[in-house]
Structure to design on (282 residues):
């Protein structure tokens, strides 16, 4: 594997980890402060194994690490990993989001026009 | 808007070096396909900032070329390529910027699930494409992601 391939591999893991809304919410929570597994169970109303599974994915993607306190084992954010993905993915996603929002509005205008002209075009072209 | 942010899903498939974007639209497939393949429609929505395209040319046949040009005060940005497969209203394949783009439209209950697959072929090309695909001046960093994940929470 080249450096580039390794980097792309790590980015893919990061993107997959971010694809899940619960994991994004966990990251958002950890942006505020570090938290233990049990501290995460309560607000998310998920079982401990489910939270632990999400944490494993986030850890594997390099987003979070375990704090120094061996007994509580709080999870905390790895800021640099977030920055990496933000640099790569977020502007790209935003660009397409803007495009899709425009398309959404444009489709609504198309439907409206079709309804307005529907009756006459059906008469002339035999289609609606 | 928080809701809009949640709408577009982006996934990277590391085995195929493919970027996949998925979005639902409240319109039938035929209409979404038309919006992707007729210049008078594409010109209205392609620019992410919402400005109508300065130029939009579409030769909709296999081997036919397309060219979308947006002009901002910061400069012009062109997206150009060649159509490979056209199967209305569900499937459109094109080559652009050294990648293969596959548009797949699936209809359920009058709504359309649109997926855009950008196949880069190699990790290096994927990296290059992500860099090229982003308009200059829009590169954002941690602050944006913080805003983004915060919006997801609401």
């Amino acid at each position: 594997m080249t450096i580039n391939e390794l980097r792309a591999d790590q980015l893919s893991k990061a993107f997959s980890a971010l694809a899940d809304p619960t994991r994004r919410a966990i990251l958002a929570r950890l942006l505020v402060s570090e938290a233990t597994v049990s501290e995460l169970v309560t607000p998310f109303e998920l079982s401990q194994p489910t939270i632990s599974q999400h944490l494993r994915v986030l850890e594997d993607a390099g987003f979070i690490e375990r704090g120094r306190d061996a007994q509580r084992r709080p999870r905390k954010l790895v800021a640099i990993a977030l920055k990496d993905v933000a640099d790569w993915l977020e502007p790209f996603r935003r660009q397409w989001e803007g495009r899709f929002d425009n398309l959404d509005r444009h489709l609504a205008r198309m439907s409206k026009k079709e309804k307005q002209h529907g009756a006459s075009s059906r008469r002339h072209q035999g289609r609606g | 808007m928080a809701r809009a942010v949640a709408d577009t899903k982006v996934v990277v498939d590391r085995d195929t070096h493919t970027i996949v974007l998925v979005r639902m639209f409240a319109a039938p497939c035929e209409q979404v396909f038309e919006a992707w393949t007729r210049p008078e429609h594409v010109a209205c929505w392609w620019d992410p900032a919402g400005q109508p395209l300065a130029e939009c040319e579409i030769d909709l046949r296999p081997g036919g070329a397309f060219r979308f040009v947006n002009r901002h005060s910061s400069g012009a940005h062109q997206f150009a390529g060649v159509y490979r497969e056209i199967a209305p209203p569900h499937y459109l394949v094109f080559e652009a910027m050294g990648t293969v783009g596959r548009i797949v439209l699936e209809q359920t209950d009058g709504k359309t699930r649109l997926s855009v697959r950008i196949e880069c072929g190699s990790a290096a090309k994927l990296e290059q494409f992500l860099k090229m695909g982003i308009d200059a001046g829009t590169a954002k960093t941690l602050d944006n992601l913080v805003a983004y994940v915060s919006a997801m929470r609401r």
